[in-house]
Every structure is written in structure tokens, then in C-alpha cells.
Hints:
The chain is mostly beta strands.
Amino acid sequence: QLQLVESGGGLVQSGGSLRLSCAVSESTLGYYAVGWFRQAPGKERERVSCISKDGDLTYYADDVEGRFTVSRHNAVNTVYLQMNSLKPEDTAVYYCAADRLFRLCMSGAMDYWGKGTLVTVSS
């Protein structure tokens, strides 16, 4: 059972930056595509970014394109989400998820999920 643990959330002012990390329990991260999702209070969960197992494919939601960057370091079983120019509307619980199939990140139907880390952006 793959386990994922997010970290790096916190309180930041508008325009600031945070880097989220998603640490994976096994040394087989290279077999999995990873996605970042978020859920704001009272809203449905939405897809933020996806990265393929090799890192050669990435996806970003329109409202984070150019501000967020996803990357991965398979040797240390960790995926990152660098978030710059943060806005109050980025406030949400951020989750990472993993699956062997990249296309399941696009549909949000990934097999393994972390418990989330809270990002709060003040205006």
C-alpha cells in the first residue's frame, strides 16, 4: 500500500511563495504518476497539477499555469509543488495522489492519496 505524506503548507501573504512536498513511502515512486489537488472550504476538489512517472509530462490548471511548478526527485521518493505569486483564492487543503496511469490524474481517479496540507494565503 503506497503511502503519501504532504508537507510544506502554512500561512503566507498574498504574493508570497511556498513549496509543498509529497513524500512517498516506497522506493518505487518512479512507477507512479503524481498529481496535486486542492479543496477550498465549501468547494469541490479540483486538479492543480500532474506529473508523469518520468517527469516528461506535466499538466497545470489554467489558474495556476505560470505560477506553480511541479517537479519530482524519484531518488528521494519526493514530488514537489513550488507555488509562487500566491493569491487568496489559492487557499485550500492541498493533496497529493499517485497512480501508475498518468491519465487517471487528469480524471482525478488516482488510487493513492495523502491526507493533505493546509495552505492559507492572506490578503
